[in-house]
Amino acid sequence: RGNMAFAGKYEFEGDENYDDFVKKIGLPSDKIEMGRNCKIVTEVVQNGNDFTWTQHFPGGRTTTNTFIIGKEADMETMGGKKFKATVKMEDGKIVADFPNYHHTAEICGGKLVETSTASGVVYKRTSKRIN
């Protein structure tokens, strides 16, 4: 596993516990509907410990988080809130604490697997590599 393991483009394939999770983090209902089974394409550019993590939503909206492992960075949540976080690398997983949830991302069998936990609800999103 090289440190370039994350670089690539991934398309949403499936998720678990979406509704419970987004209610827990207080996402407004219009955003909940918008995000359900949303064919989000996640694009990861990795240069050593520097990452640019972009999510392309249908309809042209994008969210980009740029961070360096181990350094505090300005980030944005699913709901568009700005916050500061220090992203870590633990056992090959990217780990970050968002304001109201704990997030990890890993590459598992060529797929991008993201897990977010809020007050005991675990939301898991799987995306398949498209390039």
UniProtKB/TrEMBL annotation:
GO molecular function annotation: lipid binding
Record domain Cytosolic fatty-acid binding proteins: where: 8-25
CDD domains linked: FABP6
Compartments where located: Cytoplasm
One term under GO cellular component: cytoplasm
InterPro entries per the UniProt record, alphabetical: Calycin, Fatty_acid-bd, ILBP
Keyword terms of this UniProt record: Cytoplasm, Lipid-binding, Transport
Recorded family membership: Belongs to the calycin superfamily. Fatty-acid binding protein (FABP) family.
Protein name: FABP6 protein
Organism: Pandion haliaetus
